[in-house]
Design goal:
alpha/beta; 446 residues; single chain; 24% strand; FAD/NAD(P)-binding domain; four-stranded parallel sheet
């Protein structure tokens, strides 16, 4: 039985539909838990993904369950909330309804207020063909495929007699020098030089080559210069090659081509490539723009009013990575705060209270480089090394969803950071096939 909130007059409750259950959608739903509304959360997956820790899933530190709890479980105590699995394919702003697709079937869902928190996808800057050889880091599937590629490359190198092919298998190229790229490069380097020691007999994993490429002239461009320098120093100590001012011009199964005039960099043979160079708004953004006449920016984000609503449609809110407002960055904090603001605005309206604009509070930025090394900024405060890593650890634990997940994550971090292991290294046959690291039929029979 579905429990619906009722108004004091006993009339039908105000229907709030939230599209997407990332940070923006989840925090909006939670903020409505005591409101006199009926909330429907609809998402194309059944889990809330803690995206900032995807790179730890990809490098064997955490399991998928620790960073992706079921949405139904997270919201199980909210009596006014139901969760539906589906992919919103069209928004009819005039009829206030959504066209939803689920496993081949199509159906409609009406709303009184709509919160669109569909997030963002990886951007290949017009070269979507790169995705097959260089997956991004936006979904569980992405991270699990990258994990299969990383650990599969070491497995293939162990039985590869040709030195050139072995070198290609043990070369890892990370494209993009933002937080995701820095964290990914640092963890691959630490994995190869520390966690995989003594695991192989024919190769030394510490010989792996980790290359970080960015078209700009600085790593972590949004961070203070002192932390940028510290990040570069820490990565180099781990053995990461850093090449700035270099653009990737082509990516294929065997390596990458770059804009460098240096022949050694113009073509880098590499089995594993990870794309962390940019994001673009969910395609639902352009669908919403067509339905409402709203403007979009170059990344496909909706230009919203100061209260996160679509111009001309005060009943439609756009939050998180899908909204364009005051040049706010596409980070989790913006999504959380804008999601809560949209929910509170709906509640205020139902109480007849006045409009309030959205005001973002910048709580800082951080990026981890390896165990005991991170950089963080909180207003004028700058942290690096172990203090930065400790701050990173505490903040991420605080935002993980669910007590059980926090306990499990602490256990996994203890194994990975205090010990030498990576507890999550399993590769399924399906992942191996997708990543191209599956053995041949003859090898499987032998």
């Amino acid at each position: 039985m579905t429990h619906l909130a009722t108004t004091p007059e006993g009339t039908a409750p105000h229907r709030v539909v939230i599209v997407g259950c990332g940070f923006g959608g989840l925090f909006a739903a939670r903020a409505l838990r005591r409101a006199p509304v009926q909330v429907t959360v609809i998402d194309r997956t059944n889990h809330h993904l803690f995206q900032p820790l995807l790179y730890q899933l990809a490098t064997g530190i955490l399991s998928s369950g620790e960073i992706a709890p079921p949405i139904r479980d997270v919201l199980r105590k909210q009596r006014n909330t139901r969760v539906l699995l589906g992919d919103v394919v069209r928004i009819d702003a005039d009829r206030r309804s959504l066209a939803v697709r689920t496993l081949g079937s199509r159906w409609e869902l009406g709303y009184d207020s709509l919160i669109v928190a569909a997030g963002a996808a990886q951007s290949y800057f017009g070269h979507d063909e790169f995705a097959a050889a260089a997956p991004g880091m936006k979904t569980l599937d992405d991270a699990l495929e990258i994990r299969a590629r990383i650990f599969g490359a070491f497995e293939l190198a162990e039985r590869e007699p040709d030195p050139a092919q072995r070198s290609r298998l043990m070369t890892f190229v990370v494209i993009g020098g933002g937080p995701t790229g820095v964290e990914m490069a640092g963890q691959i380097a630490e994995l190869s030089r520390r966690a995989l020691r003594h695991n192989f007999r024919s190769i030394d994993p510490g010989d792996a080559r980790v290359v970080l490429i960015d078209g700009g002239d600085r790593l972590l461009a949004s961070f203070p210069e002192s932390l940028q320098r510290r990040t570069a120093q820490d990565l180099k100590r781990l053995g990461v090659e850093i090449h700035l001012g270099v653009r990737v011009t082509d990516v294929d199964a065997d390596g990458v081509h770059t804009s460098s005039a240096d022949p050694a960099l113009a073509r880098i043979p590499a089995a594993v490539k990870v794309w962390a160079a940019g994001v673009q708004a969910s395609p639902l953004g352009r669908s919403l723009a067509e339905a409402t006449g709203a403007a979009v920016d170059r990344a496909g984000r909706i230009q919203v009013r100061d209260d996160c609503t679509v111009p001309g449609h005060p009943e439609i809110f756009v939050v998180g990575d899908l909204m364009a407002l005051d040049q706010l960055p596409g980070v989790a904090e913006v999504a959380m705060q804008s999601g809560m603001h949209a929910a509170r605005t709906i509640t205020r309206r139902l109480r007849g209270k006045a409009h309030k604009p959205f005001r973002y509070r910048d709580l800082g930025s951080m990026a981890t480089i390896s165990r005991f090394r991170a950089v963080a900024t909180f207003g004028p405060l700058r942290l690096s090394g172990f203090p930065g890593w400790l701050a990173w650890l505490l903040v991420h634990l605080a935002f993980l969803t669910g007590f059980k997940n926090r306990i499990a994550t602490i256990a996994s971090w203890t194994i990975a950071f205090i010990g030498h292991g990576r507890p999550e290294r399993a590769i399924t046959a399906h992942q191996a096939l997708r990543s191209g690291t599956a053995p041949t039929e003859g090898a499987r029979r032998s």
